[in-house]
Amino acid sequence: MRAAMSKANKIRFAVVAGLAATGCFFAFAAFFAPGSLSSQVVAALIVFGLLAVAATNLDVIARASIGMSGSVMIFTASIVVFGEYSFFLGPAIIGLCCGLFDVVHLRKREWEKIAFNCASDSLSLMGGTAVFLLVASSDPIAEPALLGVGVACAAFTYLVLNALFVSFPVAISGDEAYTKVLKEIVAFNVGAFPFALLGLGLGWVYLELGAAVVPLLVVPILIARSTFASYLELKTGQEQTIETLILALEAKDRYTAGHAQRVANFSEYIGVELAFGQRRMERLRYAALMHDIGKLVVPNQLLNKPGRLTEAEFERVKRHESVSVELLHRIDFLAPVAGDTTTEAATAAVDGTRLIEPAIIHVADAFDAMTSTRSYRRALSQETAFTELREGSGTQFNAQCVDALITAIERRDEHFGAGHEVDEHDWAVAPPEAGTGSAGLGHLIPEEQAASS
Fold it and tell me: pTM of the prediction?
């Protein structure tokens, strides 16, 4: 059997394919739409090339391997300008400049990244330029309405193509699913779209006033960079807040923290099946991670009690839900997900008439509880857990969420439960094979009976 292509070879293949496609498009454009290399075109190439290189080297790291910069405004402005000059290759050349003169990659001699960036930017800009020429008139500046529509379509095309191209090496290098990375980059590019539209104004001003407006072009680039940097700082702060809370939970009980991470993963599986958007998926993940944060106030001897809980003990454990809600309400960006963490909300969402996020977390929580070893019993098999979910579908669990989770796990050919557990946990008393509950914390017995037993 032929060995699977290595990560490095996949990236090299992407680079070679991108360069080959770029060369073919350049040759095609030069033959069918050569344009006129006038003094105006040369001046515009120099001006926009320098601006694009400057913007690229002032980029902001959005996530590992992905940088966002103000160059998108320069790109769309160049499409307007070179569209007026009838020089189809102009924007693609600007894209090449961005890739070739990325100081960070040059210093590290990351030639493959430089080559790929050259190819992806050029191809994306060629696509955007082609769409612009199809939508706008032969004299774009003369028809403002068509010019605006053309720029919007061109910016959209560029950002979509850029996301499609860039997601490939990022997914390979990070061993992530291509679709997951693509959604992240598309979300970033959606945020860049308003800045891309600013290119319309910048291009029009350049055509009216010429190179004298270069200082004016620098200001919006810096504003765009500052705005995006502030947004990312806020996002980083939010992630660090959640990490701190999870670390606090892990310091108290390593098992509970691992459970929260797994519930978040299973919730995302369901969200993918239900076609959740990026923002809604983020809210779901936050709620899933935080659903047990109230257990910080529950004594460990109750969380990990081998036997059944008394009524008094159960009531004390049950308090963690109200504590979770109160804690989340005190953190501004987590307050909207507080209601998603309660059993009442999950019960109300079983029939699908309420917000479905609590029902998703409820199903994910139950599945992980059944397929994990608890203090009162060892992990059940995945098949048993699936059967329990199906039997409770429509009554205890939301049927749509149950079907989505089972479908997602089977599609990924993943296995959980007995014989497939990853996290190890040291129990004071070895859990029995069969215990007092499956997804819950154990059946109740009257307090007086517990005292006499």
Answer: 0.57
In three state form, how does the secondary structure of the chain look? CCCCCCHHHHHHHHHHHHHHHHHHHHHHHHHHCCCCCCHHHHHHHHHHHHHHHHHHCCCEEEECCEEECCHHHHHHHHHHHHHHCCCCCHHHHHHHHHHHCCHHHHHHCCHHHHHHHHHHHHHHHHHHHHHHHHHCCCCHHHCHHHHHHHHHHHHHHHHHHHHHHHHHHHHHHCCCCHHHHHHHHHHHHHHHHHHHHHHHHHHHHHHHHHHHHHHHHHHHHHHHHHHHHHHHHHHHHHHHHHHHHHHHHHHHCHHHHHHHHHHHHHHHHHHHHCCCCHHHHHHHHHHHHHCCHHHHHCCHHHHCCCCCEEHHHHHHHHCHHHHHHHHHHCCHHHHHHHHHHCHHHHHHCCCCCCCCHHHHHHHHHHHHHHCCCECCECCCEHHHHHHHHHHCECCCECHHHHHHHHHHHHHHCCCCECCCCCCCCCCCCCCCCCCCCCCCCCCEECHHHHHHC
pLDDT in tens, 133-155: 888 766 666 777 788 888 889 98
